[in-house]
Amino acid sequence: MDFTLSDEQRQLQQLARDFTRKEIIPIAAEYDQKEELPWQVVEKAFEVGLLNVAIPEHAGGLGLGMLDECLIGEEIGYGCMGIYTVLMASELGLTPILVGGTEEQQKRFCQPMTEKAGLYAFALSEPNNGSDAAAMHTMAVLDGDEWVLNGTKMWISNGGMAEWTVVFATTDRQGGHRATVALVVPKDAPGFTYNKIKHKMGQRASLTSELVFENVRVPKENQLGGLGDGFKIAMKTLDKTRIPVAAGSVGLARRAMEESIKYAKERAAFGKPIAEFQAIQFKLAEMAMGIETGRLMYQKAAWLVDQHQPHGFESAIAKAYCSEMAFDAANEAIQVHGGYGYVGEYPVEKLLRDVKLNQIYEGTNEIQRVVISRNLLK
Ligand code: COS
């Protein structure tokens, strides 16, 4: 086994690390408070080559692999999980086009995004169904050469701001997953509106929206795969994109650990820095154990994707493990900081608010356990 990253991967990691330090960390608290997506970061990420990195080479993109994407994800997650979600939800919205689209569709939906900064979005969840994804209510009715979309999608990252949104809909509410379709909807489609969801607990620099479709006409050539393929395209997508969530979580945990180390060396109690007490040292050791284990897990899952091997089981383990590990790390970082950890003056308060969502989005951790146990029992 070889755990060494290639020269290109180390350069990519360094690029993402420098970008995080220069463009993300200085503004993260401000955009969290403003509850605003920092568009200038999206533009700068595009300029340096950190946006929509999975666009294939045949469509003019970088064609980076899953491990590459995860290396970026860990660095951005270190800086701000909200901004991570802006950038990585775009890769999430792009992935169904890569999973289910023809080469012609990939060129049509991707090439313009290699020429200017733009985002993708992935619209699966609805107000009344999230985990039971096949039970979607958003209707698609064929009218000549166009699908007519009606319904509401909920909790959509980059929703309304994305150039392209992959919308999953049903053609028959009694038909289960075999009646689902995946449609690529442009931002300016008449009848497509959105409402920003405000007052989120964390990840406030990312835009989360409710999407409303009222008689939105989508050309048939924007359909990914065949009729009935929608649900499976969504599942195959999530099997991949849950891995960067794990990587971002590792980045956040690393931040929690580093902030704790810094504070523990500065803060004194009973005549010495608190870093000299085992009560603190053991917390740091737990964090390091979780980060090292989590990184191994996401890297293995990402490697499987890049080798075109089955990866759904490992992806679910990585997502659930790393998001829970990062939650614990952020929680303990606050404990290390004491009262100062509970206020916004230090970054650890935001880490805990942000990381909670990692246990919920891209499939709750309970759903990850469903996926893991089904793999064990099948
Ligand atoms: N890859 C490919 N195909 C898959 C698949 C996967 N990972 N998972 C399921 N399928 C296929 C099954 O093989 C089955 O196909 P056939 O009927 O042809 O045999 C079909 O899809 C239905 O599968 P299943 O019966 O297992 O689906 P369920 O309705 O029981 O749902 C879960 C399975 C719960 C795992 C799924 O609904 C899920 O992942 N939910 C969470 C959704 C989510 O992550 N939402 C977050 C949105 S993004 S923020």
What's the quick description here?
The protein has 378 residues and is α+β, with helices and mostly antiparallel strands.
Tell me what you see in this structure:
The strands form three sheets. Strands 1-4-5-8 form a four-stranded mixed beta sheet. A four-stranded antiparallel beta sheet has the order 2-3-7-6, covered by helices on one side. The protein is globular. The protein has 378 residues and is of the alpha+beta class. The protein starts with 6 loop residues before the first helix and ends with a helix. The protein has helices at residues 7-34, 39-48, 66-79, 81-100, 103-110, 230-266, 278-306, 312-337, 348-355, 365-377, and strands at residues 120-123, 139-143, 146-157, 164-170, 180-186, 192-196, 208-219, 223-224, 268-269, 272-273. The longest helix is centred in the middle third of the chain and has 37 residues, at 230-266. Helix 6 packs antiparallel against helix 7 (278-306). The model has no long low-confidence stretch (mean pLDDT 98). It has three domains: 7-114, Butyryl-Coa Dehydrogenase, subunit A, domain 1 (Orthogonal Bundle), CATH 1.10.540; 120-228, Butyryl-CoA Dehydrogenase, subunit A, domain 2, CATH 2.40.110.10; 232-377, Butyryl-CoA Dehydrogenase, subunit A, domain 3, CATH 1.20.140.10. Residues 122, 124-125, 130-131, 133-134, 177, 231-232, 235-236, 238-239, 312, 361-363, 367, 370-371 line the site of coenzyme a persulfide (COS).
